Amino acid sequence: MKELQHLNKYFLKYKYQLILGVIITAIARVFLLFTPRLVREIFTVVENWNNGIITDKSVFKAELLENILLIVGASIVAGVLTFLMRQTIINVSRYVEYDLKNEVYQQYQKLSLNFYKKNRTGDLMNRITEDVSRVRMYAGPAIMYSINTITLFVIALIYMFNQAPKLTLYTILPLPILSVAIYKLSKEIHKRSTIVQEYLSKLSSSTQETFSGISIIKAYGLELQTSANFNQLSEESRQKQLDLVRIRSFFFPMMILLIGISNLMVIYIGGKQYIDGEIESLGTIAEFIIYVNMLTWPVATVGWVTSIVQQAEASQKRINEFLKKKPEISNTVTEPTTIKGDITFKNVYFTYDDTNIQALNDVSFTLNKGKTLAIIGKTGSGKSTILDLIGRLYDIDKGEILIDGKPIKSINLTSLRNAIGYVPQDAFLFSDTIKNNITFGKEDASDEDVITAAKQAQVHKNIVKFNKGYDTVLGERGITLSGGQKQRVSIARAIVKDPKILLFDDSLSAVDTETEEKILHHLNTVSKDKTTIIVSHRVSSVKNADHIIVLDNGKIIQDGNHNSLINKVGYYKELYEKQLSEAY
Ligand SMILES: Nc1ncnc2c1ncn2[C@@H]1O[C@H](COP(=O)(O)OP(=O)(O)OP(=O)(O)O)[C@@H](O)[C@H]1O
């Protein structure tokens, strides 16, 4: 229960609804328990009529009717209260589920990129869906059924002991056996349903992967093989489902058996006691039969609730593991920082934790506000890493990164990221309209801003050709853009944000040189007062930059401007000549 204490703050938040729920539950049970006593009354009235104690037929009828009406009345009140019990306690569990989901999601957002590298997406999704649902079962049904069982049991036992103490003992004897049996069964059901769940998620991720890679599968003619893999997985999954169904089938027969045994005991022992004169009325036997049936389900829930609590505890433990994680990159500055855009790297060293790859080795450069730096170099030389470090997606090992002359850690993280317009290597677009994809970083951008940015990114003409223009939906339910179109929408997104710092990570690789030329021309105007970094493999993209650095294996091996570098023997000159000859 230690892990579940995390939920106490939510119980405190919804304390009034919870207390109301508990009171309603208790009162509902009291009303429910009127029925057995009233049934006994009816039996007594009938016995009295048979024994001649009541002789007046109208009195007999009136007493019968009174008890029947009382049963109907008590049942209606109990029914209404049971409805209200669910409306309070189950509602609270839904509120708790909602709050907990939000808490986990907020925490996910705070955690740094490294966290996402170390944990699989499926696992992250599971904690926010499966685990939170299991915890909800504790916050709602488990609490509700526990209160239900306790109140019903206490009140019923008091009534029963008052009526016939010996019969009570015999009646409740099989109930603990029922509880333990249900507990064991629930545990086994849970074990098997977890396996079924695992198979279902394997099936869905494998299907999802197949659909995502359908063009490759078709191109390589692998349909039969993927179908065979699917069938095998599906067959295994079916087997596990059948195992689960088998164990579940025991549940109700077992309950019926144990209720049957209890009923028989009441009839047998009660009957003997009646014959021996230990109990006065046959009505008591009827009353006890109703108690047994009323108590069976709550007693069965003791076993069920125990297993729910155990599952919830395990799930909350997994959730807590993530909630307790401290973000590696945190914002320590509360005041917003105004950013101008000067960037300085001083002897920066950086190694990726997970792979131990040293991506940057003693990198230094200075880039003043409004200037353009280009980074060129072989793949894996550390170009993207420099951009990630400017956005403080990682903290460096050694050296210093200064923004406007201040250490990057002393700058408000939100202000820093708000000041950056980043165009990643793989343009990521959401399943949303083109317009919303462009205004992603600046939701209040006007239609005019969006169109201007799209024109500057050379994608406006493509967009207006679609039937719905800027309202065209992209992604799974919409159209698929070409690689170059995606890159350009992504560039428009950065431009519309009007940031102080623009970072382009090989963002023109999928556009032809003519379009590239036009985009670069517009970028000259757009980035006039902005600090710009362009990462590229193409000399044509970087030649107009104020400063160019050439990276190799995390080290700067050359730097200067285009004119100086093409006159120096080295990587840049070689690349320039090679790309020049390819162009002709
Ligand atoms: N998130 C990461 N975790 C671990 N290692 C990484 C990560 N990102 C990059 N690396 C490694 O760091 C080195 C530098 O990578 P980086 O992406 O900065 O290179 P790049 O010059 O941008 O390459 P490319 O031109 O192919 O995009 C590479 O060896 C790469 O494998």
Task: Give the SSE layout.
Elements: H1 8-13, H2 15-32, H3 34-50, H4 57-110, H5 113-118, H6 121-163, H7 165-172, H8 174-212, H9 214-219, H10 223-248, H11 251-275, H12 282-323, E1 343-351, E2 358-367, E3 372-377, H13 383-390, E4 398-403, E5 406-407, H14 413-418, E6 420-423, H15 434-438, H16 447-456, H17 460-465, H18 483-496, E7 501-505, H19 513-526, E8 531-536, H20 539-542, E9 547-552, E10 555-560, H21 562-566, H22 571-583
Parallel strand pairs: 3-8, 3-9, 6-7, 7-8
Antiparallel strand pairs: 1-2, 1-4, 4-5, 9-10
Helix pairs in contact: 2-4, 2-6, 3-4, 3-12, 4-6, 6-7, 6-12, 7-11, 8-10, 8-11, 8-12, 11-12, 16-18
Bound molecules: adenosine-5'-triphosphate (ATP).
Adenosine-5'-triphosphate (ATP) binds at residues 117, 352, 354-355, 357, 359, 377, 379-385, 425, 506.
